[in-house]
Amino acid sequence: MTRRDSAFAVIFRRDRVLLVKPRGRDRWQLPGGGVKPREVPWVSVLREVEEETGLQARLIALTGMYRRRDGSLAFVFAARVGWRRIPKWPLNEISKRRWVPVRKALRRLPRASRKRLRDALRRPSLFRSSPRENFRPARVASLGRQALRFSAG
């Protein structure tokens, strides 16, 4: 079985975080999903956010990389979206999208996603800073290669 990495976004607006609820599932999650073959995580997360929310995101920073039981990696990015409203109609595999207060989001998310959100919350300057991004794809690629070497060794 081949492993499939994934990429997710933590998107804040004021004191709320954007969550999505996939069709047929009981749990909410951060916007994101699987990284396609030959796709880099930062391109994947931008694609997934737009597919799942109808919003275009701008990445700020990588907030964490997490190893799953199957050996795949989950990349989590801090991101921003414009002030456009979230479309009301369902998009692709997502039935609901909501801006949720952080405390409520922590209760709604599964354990792994809760940890990822908490890790992002430990870096509040990412979400309050000016629009200038400190996200550098080359740095993320370097971190990803280091993680892959770590998993192989």
Overall description:
- With 153 residues, the chain is of the alpha+beta class.
- It has a single domain (6-152), classed as Nucleoside Triphosphate Pyrophosphohydrolase (Alpha-Beta Complex).
- 33% of the residues lie in helices and 30% in strands.
- It has 5 helices and 6 strands; from the N terminus they run βββαβββαααα.
- The chain has helices at residues 41-53, 102-108, 111-121, 125-128, 137-152, and strands spanning 6-13, 16-22, 32-34, 57-67, 73-81, 94-101.
- Strands 1, 2, 3, 4, 5 and 6 form a 6-stranded mixed beta sheet that branches.
- Strand 4 and strand 5 (73-81) form a beta hairpin.
- Helix 2 (102-108) runs antiparallel to helix 3 (111-121).
- SSE class: alpha+beta
Sheet having the most strands: 6 strands, mixed
Number of domains: 1
- Overall strand count: 6
Spatial separation of the terminal alpha carbons? 20 Å
Poorly predicted runs are 129-135, 146-153
| CATH class membership | Alpha Beta
In CATH terms, what is the fold-level topology?
Answer: Nucleoside Triphosphate Pyrophosphohydrolase
Q: Could you state the CATH homologous superfamily?
A: Nucleoside Triphosphate Pyrophosphohydrolase
Query: Strand share of the residues?
Result: 25-35%
Please tell me what the overall shape is: globular
Indicate the radius of gyration in whole angstroms.
Answer: 15 Å
Q: State the helix count.
A: 5
